[in-house]
Amino acid sequence: MLPTPTKAAEDSATAVAVSDLRMRYGDRDVLCGVDLTVRRGEVFALLGPNGAGKSTTIEILEGFRRRSGGEVSVLGADPDTAGPAWRGELGIILQSWRDHPRWRVRELLEHFATYYEHPRDVDELLERLGLQEQAAQECQKLSGGQRRRVDVALGIVGNPRLLFLDEPTTGFDPVARREFHELVEQLRDEGMTMVLTTHDLHEAERLADRIAVLIAGRVAACGTAAELAVSARAQAEVVWTDDGQTRRQITPDPSQLVWELQQRLGGPIPGLEVHRPTLEDIYIRMIREGETQ
Amino acid sequence: MTIRRALACGLGRGRLEITHLLRTPREVISQLSTPIAFVVLAMVNDDAIPGSALPMANVFIAGGVAAVVVQTCLIALPQVLATEREEGTLLRQRTAPEGMTAYLIGKTCLLLTQVLIGIALVLAGGAVFAGSGLPAGLGDWLTLLWVLPLGLLAMAPIGAALGAVLPNAREALAWSMMPVLGVMAISGIFFSITSLPEAVQTISQLFPPKWIAQGVRSALLPDSALAAETGHSWQHLQALGVTAAWAVAGFTLAPRVLRRMARRESGSRLAERRTAAPA
Ligand SMILES: Nc1ncnc2c1ncn2[C@@H]1O[C@H](COP(=O)(O)OP(=O)(O)O)[C@@H](O)[C@H]1O
Ligand SMILES: [Mg+2]
Fold first, then answer.
1. Domain segments of chain B: what residues?
2. Does A111 sit within 8 Å of B16, measured CB to CB?
3. pLDDT tens string A64-96
4. Exposed (0-12), middle (13-18) or buried (19+): which is A173, by Cβ within 10 Å?
5. Per the structure, how many domains does chain A have?
6. Interface pTM (ipTM) of the complex?
7. CA B93 – ligand 1 centroid, Å
8. Residue A211 belongs to some domain of the structure
9. Domain containing A192: what range?
């Protein structure tokens, strides 16, 4: 079955194109016009607090939920109508699940390899994820971290072109998190496109080529970590004391404001501080603004 | 091409699920319990079928065959579906191309194996230990060959739909157990129902179990046993009509319900249940 091209599909360099995506549950709008573009070969992070709509977005892209409105193209097809050949190009890692409890690790991976046109070698996959010793164990007997590695193995056993990961490291200890980050980096080096969600800014900075900040169903900012940092630093906070009171003002041009203050006060400015906010400051501020809306 | 792959994946799945069944002692025991119970019931009862010299054992053995079909389709199947939906097995299937098709094919293989093993155990156990009959000729075997598949086709889609709509495995069991046992009780599976009130006998004729049991009796017993049958005949035509009607209804309803279930499953629903249910 040929994928059906949609208006949102741009060109072969685009893996995911989303425009004006809307989702409504009952009378509540959870996504209010999301625009995104994911390029082939990049790692794209959807960053946002709980309830921002990250899972809703990623599950619409995966073809697991029908959107209420907007244009979506994933690998050149509309997820709502795309067929099995399209699905074979995707890998999906959802938040922890406990499926197939009685299946042994190797037989589960070997079984899922049969669904795909060009699957990965199961032995190589077991070795890569450090699961050789668990190959003959039932999934229900694995530890949390081992189980998670099985999820990852199942996500990539079909050798997907595009891999979706929904909060992949939630509940990981620091070692597991580090190992997982290294795995994502290896897969990126192999050319796999990845879309991941996280509520952790540092994880997004560490893994993603580009980040979209999703707040209350809207993309509040989008770009590389460096671009976001630059735009964050573009707004400086100037603090000073006037009549014994602390004053603060946000400005794109702190030097100009300081100059004006000196003029007005006719000399040195008491208690002067100029802050360049970090990306984290800005992220927290965006979340707060989203909450007060 | 994809159809062939889906079939291959489904058959592979069926083979693995059968292996899992056989290597889990708990499953093997519950698999054996219905056949053993009916064979024992047939062994301890020395009565004759009313109005004939034939042993009652035949009634229990035929009832056991029907019970295997009913229990596998209406109790085991909904439970397994609800469980696999809850733990995310179905969602995992959804992530793979043609995964749901393969899942259904695999489940069909498993169900057929369970039913065939159960029926073989009841018939053989009855013949060896309880003196019940086996089909006497080609005609009687052919009767089994249409009654049992049709009975399965009548019951399995209903069980699948039940598993798809009930909220979880525990409720699947609670909701399916009582009505199923009730229908089985009035269907001549545990005892001959000619002594029951007319109205109850009429109700039982609306459901497949009575016809499965009666159809099996018609294959095991000579016509001299007919005195104890409700219609004083084997009523093959009615059996065919009622089971076929249920099969048609089931195959109309079940695919819709299953499709809806598959569509509704998502990662967040899974996570929601995870947080809602104590781990
Ligand atoms: N199936 C659903 N029905 C109704 N509301 C939902 C459903 N799924 C999610 N929501 C709501 O939509 C909002 C966004 O949810 P979600 O996409 O899971 O956010 P995130 O993944 O960013 O935490 C939340 O407020 C959640 O309660
Ligand atoms: Mg989420």
1. 3-264
2. yes
3. 999 999 999 999 999 999 999 999 999 999 876
4. exposed
5. 2
6. 0.87
7. 23
8. yes
9. 41-55+84-229
